[in-house]
Fold these 3 entries.
Entry 1:
Amino acid sequence: MLSEGCKGDAIELTLILKREEYAPLRKLLRSGRTLFLQTNVDHAWWVRPVGDIQAEVQVSGQRFVDPIR
């Protein structure tokens, strides 16, 4: 296997999550583990979450009973 080694870059992702998805993802992001992100075609990346990960509740008619973050 040939490799150029590990390289680093900062990216920003916007995720839209329902209530039941938010807590498990937040726990995973705070775990300090390196994550493997993969598209549904042929791209994949190893990523490590760093810094302050922000979340906000999206404005919707159901935001008080079923928030989307």
Entry 2:
Amino acid sequence: MSALLVMALATVTAPDSAPALAAVQKCDKQAMRAMATDEPHRRTQFAAAAYAEQRAIAQERAALLDVQISGTPSGAATTANALAQIDARQKELDDVKAIEKSWRDLFDEVRADFLANCSSGKRNADDK
């Protein structure tokens, strides 16, 4: 992955689940409100970074395949090595996307749990 895209994806990776789980366990309305407010922006940042990386991978793969088709046999090993590096980037991106999907599933479940179990009469200490 290019250094810029690695940094972009690193800054928008899925958050730690502990605060979300603690917020629903404690029926902490302020914490849930803050997470629910921040989540759409975090998801947008992630999607933009993942899109940029996927696009870069596709462009680099296409360029290498063009070179491979018109290249010399001596350059085949170099091209194969470069394609292997691109495949590794793709696998890394796929892993990041799978983690993001898992986070989104968990966050949606935590939010549903909070709404079902904390909205009707249960109050945290800050609401007294």
Entry 3:
Amino acid sequence: MIKSINSLGSKVYGALTESKPHKKLCNYFVQNPAKAIANSTIASIVAKDGIGCAFYVYQSYNNEKIPEKRRKFVTALDATNGILMIGTQIAMALLMRKINQKAFQGLFGKVFDKGGKNLKMYIEQIRADQKAEKLSPVRKFLLEQGYEGIKKQAFDTFSFFTELAAATIFAKRILVPFMATPLANKLEKWMNKHSSKSDDAKVETDNDSNPSMKGADWNDAIPAAEADGTTNLLDIYRKNHTES
């Protein structure tokens, strides 16, 4: 049994690794590792929040332990929390991606200066190390490429942390709690408005479908039951229709 499961699993996994989407995804991670890791991290967080939102809303709406008069508000709060978490996290991550270049230049412009002062110091240090080790000097354009590689790695790391921080800290922990309660109140009013219309329509339909259950006839039957000393409402129903 275990061998059969292992064999089936290996075949499925093997087919998956050979599929075009999997190869395309692997190439994406190889070519853009920092961006791919940032996207996959935020996507996993958003997916988790989306699934959690659906479960929380369902549980709150059907949780009889919550008082009925508060149940809609709790449900609305869970719904707004989930929707805001998903929306604000994506929005803040994309916003940071737009401004990261300027932010990085503003914070680390002196480290990676355009004038080439730090690049010159970098090349001089490499040359000195090579001379001390009695190595042949590396061509300047290769050193410049290495310097640009260091700059790119620094920028990719900076972008990863800023996008993740903007999504999970600023959006999720600051913006969402600030916005959720007011929006939950509005959603609760909307739910109450529509549910009250639905309840009124249901009551009206029930009364129209059974004329004997209309307010006047039925309310008159209760005092009659008390006067006669009987509690058999079916007898009262028959008596009223016989007399009429």
